Structures are given as C-alpha cells and as structure tokens.
Predict the 3D structure of the following.
Amino acid sequence: MTDAIERFTDHVVGTRYEDIPEAAIRAAKVFILDSLGVGLAGTRAPWVREWVASSQAMAPGAGARVWGRGETLPVAAAAALNGYLIHNSEFDCIHEKAVLHPMAVPFAALLAEAEARGGVDGRALLRAVVLGVDVACHIGASARNAIRFFRPAVGGGFGAVAAIGAAVGLDRERLLNAFGLYYAQAGGTMQAHTEGSPLLAMQIGFNARNAVTAVRMAEAGIPGLRGTLEGPFGYLNLMEGDYDPDALTRDLGRVWRIAEVAHKPFPSGRATHGIMDALRELRAEHGFTAADIDTVAASVPSLTRHLIGRPPTEGMTQNYARLCGCFAAARLLLTGTLGVGDFTAETLADPATLDLARRITITADDNPDKNALAPVTVTVRLRSGAELSRTVSVVYGNPAKALTREEHLAKFRTNLAFADGPIPAANADALIALVDDLETLDDARRLVDLVVAG
C-alpha cells in the first residue's frame, strides 16, 4: 500500500501560488500577523532567557534571531525558541477539528529558515504557510482517538517540514525523505499538559527544531522513512492509534485548512473559550455582575473537561492557570475579559478570583466525539435564585464567529506592546502594512527586522 505521505508530498510539490484561493491567502496573512504578535507576548514567559542562554552555550553560531529579544542563534535553535514563544501564552490560533495549533511549529521553523537562507519573498512565504497548515491539519483532522501525544507539536512538525520544503523548493524525493527524517525525531506528550508544565510549549519548539534538522538532513541526501504516516509503526497507527484513511487526503486541493483556522481572543487554552463565550453572552443579555453569582456549572465534551477541568489551587503557575477553565472564567467575570496581564503572581493568588473560581464546576457530557471542543452549556445560578443558561456550539474566534479586523489588530498591538524588548511602537503599523501587502515583499527577513528590539 502506498503511504499517504506520498499524496501530501505531491500536494506540496505540485501546488503553485496561483492555485491557492484568495480566501486562503487572506487567512494566511491574518495568522502570520497574529503569530508574530503572540510570539512577542510570549517573550515574557518563564524560562525564555534560560533557554536562550543554554542554546548559545551548546550550539554557538549564527543563523536566525529570537523574536522580541534579538539574540542570533543557529537556525534550528532559533526555530525552537520562536516556537516556544508562539505557544507559551496559549494565545496562538487553532484548528478546532484537528485539535492542533497550526502556525506554532510551521511558522516558527519556516521564518527561521527564511531568515537564515534569505531570498524567500512574500509569495513564497504565503504559499509555504498555506501548505504547511494544510498538511498538519489534514493529518490532525483524520484522527479518531482522543489526543495522547501532544498533537500540536508532533502533528505540527509535519506542517513545518511541508512549509520549509515548499519555501526552499525541495523536490519530491527529498521532501519524502524530510518527512520520514522528521518523524524519526518527533515527540511530545500530553503529560506536560496534565502537569501544567512549561514543557508543553517547549515541545512546540522541539519539533520546530526537528523539522529544520530533518530538511537539512534530506538536503544532504540522507534517506528517510517511507511508512511515515500509515506504516505499522507510522505516526497515525502508533501515536494516534485510530484514524479515518479516507478523510486523510480526500480534500487536498479542495479544502484549504488555513481558512478554517480560529483566532484565540483570550490567552488561555482554547477549551476554556466556549465557557467564556457563553458567560460573555449571558452577562451582556442579563446584566449581572460577579457579585451577583452564586455558582457556575459548565457541561462540556470529554476532551474539553480533560484539557481545562483542573481545579484552581493556591500557588498555581502561569502554565497551570492558562489551562484552568475555572480560573479563566472567574477572571472574565470579574474584569470583563482575560488578557496577557492576568497571569501575574498577584492575580494568580487574588482571593476574589480564587473564591469565584472555586464556585465554578466543569463536568463532561455524553458527546461521543473524542476530539470535540464544543458545544458547551453553561448555567449561572445567581444569589437571587435565578438560573440563566446558554449553549454555545460555535465559539468566538471561529471563522463562523470571527474576530473583526479591528479586534484582530487590537490583539496584535497589545501583544507587541507586551513584548520583552521593547519593540518600537511604530513597528506595529509597519508590520500591519507589510503583512497586508505581503505578496510584494522582497525578503521575509524584513518581518524579523520589525519584531526584534529596536
């Protein structure tokens, strides 16, 4: 049997820029800008400085820059750091069906290679982003089992190989080798999610690094695996365990996954967003305040409960709290929103937030889809005895309930201002204009010039 990786390879090699629909190009621009912004916000996360220092110590050399900070590292190390920056604040975009953050690994790896090599223009960058997201999300959306390995990192690495391969012009044989070489290095466990560990986002970086390494090895003529996806120990059989072989490649060239990607309006696990969306709608409709609330109960799919049903605790870390639906919902109810500044030591220990968070319960419903994040039903019981309920099937940020351009740009500006740099404020307008007209960009390195400290 021919492995599906060959069909993905043909899709990447055979798709021209002109073949890509305008809607996919528009979406690619949105999430390129979004990913740069959330990556800049991620520079304030724990362990960034330490990882930079360790990378400089173990692998001296030049290649690409760390966003926000500006240190130059070897290309694989820069890809790893920038992947960590994109995901560590849980603010990066998501493909809900695939349960995969489709820009984090591919874009971090792609832009590091584009900077190191030079000569990657805007059209090439857009084509590479669209194809990288396509490969990662088609693979992820075919999975039937609940997530076990950290799919955004492991599955995202296939997208990174596709994106780099598209940008640098790998031929069919070398791209097949690169996919196989990547899979031999791929890794990432949901144990990091369970523990609320910063290693969760670091795994994004590890696989960005592995994708860069795989492409470089393939360019050197090193052969890779061939049963990469569907072999007896291929990714889909070993790491996912069950998948739909028909759905895997059926829509290649017809459904462009980048156009299905959802924004994250809040810097917390996407599984928290359905609860917060329902609370936003209920509060706007009924006008209650946090002081009016007795309890909140959320009924959610089993995956959502698994991802963000953890209890709020004293001494929570940032990573734990971003994946705690009760904490995120409490902050939203108290302040009206949830932002990058809501995860300080003071906020995490705030008595009013913890008190409200402990009166919020999250239970699993009987949804049979092991990868569903919605619908969710939220019931608010007020101190008056009134009960208010809302079911949300399409969550704020989904293309069917999208952020406006103004909201998208406001998010980007806030993230740029939050960066550990600092980044000159004027760079925000320059980046927005550059991405809006990305087809005319002569060299992708100009994007990086605007996301490092001035």
User: Anything to note?
Assistant: The chain is about 50% helix and 5% strand. Residues 199-219 form the longest helix (21 residues). The chain has a mean pLDDT of 96.
